[in-house]
Each structure stands twice: as structure tokens, then as C-alpha cells.
Design a protein that fits this description.
Largest sheet: none
Shape: globular
Radius of gyration: 20 Å
Distance between the termini: 14 Å
Order of helices and strands: HHHHHHHHH
Strand content: under 5%
Structural class: mainly alpha
Number of strands: 0
Number of helices: 9
């Protein structure tokens, strides 16, 4: 067990944005280089969670004034639990695709779309979309709990994250939209600014993780 006390946390939206910007300016060079290294590591798909987890570890060290290096992205200490998390994600995607495939109608010789399909499919697709976002938001703190607090059980990390996110799903969704928009700003700026805006979004997420964890 981790020794953490699962409970609903206060999600401080504006505070995370301001503190995230300040932290990013504290060591911009390391954050940018770490993000580039994370991108290289993530070329192999099942290293995606590991790369992000190592990035927020680096962010924590910078936040607390500890010595760190962007090369710590290539730390494989947590590879086992992150690989399990990746497999769970693949299984979840497969489970979602099964009802989608079954829902697609078999067309008759005229290749006309059945009336029921035209009516029900948008509703069905919207329901799937809502379900995916719900579970992603409930799992918001999972990677942070594994990487920052050394929680080795995915089930335990999920249960803790479920409690932490209670009553905060709307705020989490808005925060995700804002950080996503910030990340897209770099693309709008002819792609050049992406090398700054993208790692900044990771830092903003780290600040939200750190505060949430400190509350429990």
C-alpha cells in the first residue's frame, strides 16, 4: 500500500496555470530537452506512459530545487507497471471497438444505409465518446501516482484517482481543454513554437498532479 489517503481534492485551476508558467521559466532548457527526449522514447508506443512519467519526475526535481537532467527520461525503473498500463489501454480500446463493429449494419444490395442506423449511430457514437472521456478523467492521477509516489498497483492507483477526481470532472475537462489549446498554439505559430508550448502543457499537468497528491 502507498500510505496515501484517498479523498476528493480541491482542483485549483487558475493556480495551476500561474505556477506552471513560473516553473517552466525556472528551467526552460531542461524541460524542452526532456520533452524532445520523451518524444524520441515514445516512438515505441508502449514507452509513452514511461516517457511522460519520467518527465513529471524531472519536473518534480526542478520544482524542489534538486539536481536533475533531461536524460532521466531514459530511466526504465518503472517500465513494468507502465507496460501493464499500456496493455490495459489496448484492451480497453479493443473492447470499445467490438460494439462499434457489431453496430455497423450489413448493407443490402442497394448499399443504402438503413434508417435505424442513421438515427441511432450518432447517439451510440456520442455515448462511446462520453464514456471514454469519463474514464480518462477519472484516471487523471494514475500515471502521476505511479511515477511520483511509486504506487506499483494499477488497481490501487485507479482507486485513489477515482476518489481524488470526485466532483472535479468538469474542472478537469476544462483544464484539459485549456492545456490542449496552449499546446496547439505552437502549431499555429508555424510549428516553431511547438517546442515551447508542448512541454509547457506537461509542466502545467505536473503542477496539478503535485498539488493533488500533496492534498492526500
Amino acid at each position: 500500500m502507498s500510505g496515501l489517503t484517498p479523498k476528493r481534492v480541491e482542483f485549483k485551476f487558475s493556480e495551476y496555470l500561474s505556477k506552471g508558467f513560473e516553473l517552466f521559466k525556472k528551467d526552460m532548457g531542461t524541460f524542452i530537452l526532456a520533452f524532445i527526449f520523451a518524444g524520441i522514447l515514445s516512438i515505441i508506443p508502449f514507452f509513452i506512459f514511461l516517457a511522460f512519467g519520467n518527465f513529471i519526475k524531472i519536473a518534480r526535481k526542478i520544482n524542489y530545487g534538486q539536481q536533475t537532467s533531461a536524460t532521466e527520461i531514459f530511466n526504465f525503473d518503472d517500465i513494468g507497471v507502465h507496460f501493464k498500463l499500456f496493455l490495459i489501454l489496448l484492451a480497453a480500446i479493443a473492447l470499445i471497438e467490438i460494439p462499434v463493429i457489431l453496430f455497423i449494419p450489413k448493407f443490402d444490395q442497394s448499399n443504402e444505409t438503413p434508417t435505424y442506423f442513421s438515427i441511432l449511430f450518432p447517439v451510440f457514437f456520442f455515448g462511446i465518446f462520453i464514456a471514454i472521456y469519463y474514464f480518462l478523467l477519472k484516471a487523471y492521477y494514475v500515471v502521476a501516482l505511479i511515477s511520483l509516489e511509486n504506487v506499483k498497483s494499477i488497481k490501487e492507483a485507479w482507486n485513489i484517482s477515482k476518489e481524488m477526481t470526485k466532483g472535479n470532472l468538469l474542472m478537469l475537462f476544462l483544464f484539459a481543454m485549456v492545456t490542449s489549446f496552449i499546446g496547439q498554439i505552437g502549431i499555429i505559430a508555424c510549428g516553431i513554437g511547438l517546442i515551447i508550448s508542448a512541454p509547457l502543457t506537461y509542466v502545467l499537468q505536473y503542477v496539478s498532479y503535485e498539488d493533488g497528491i500533496q492534498q492526500i
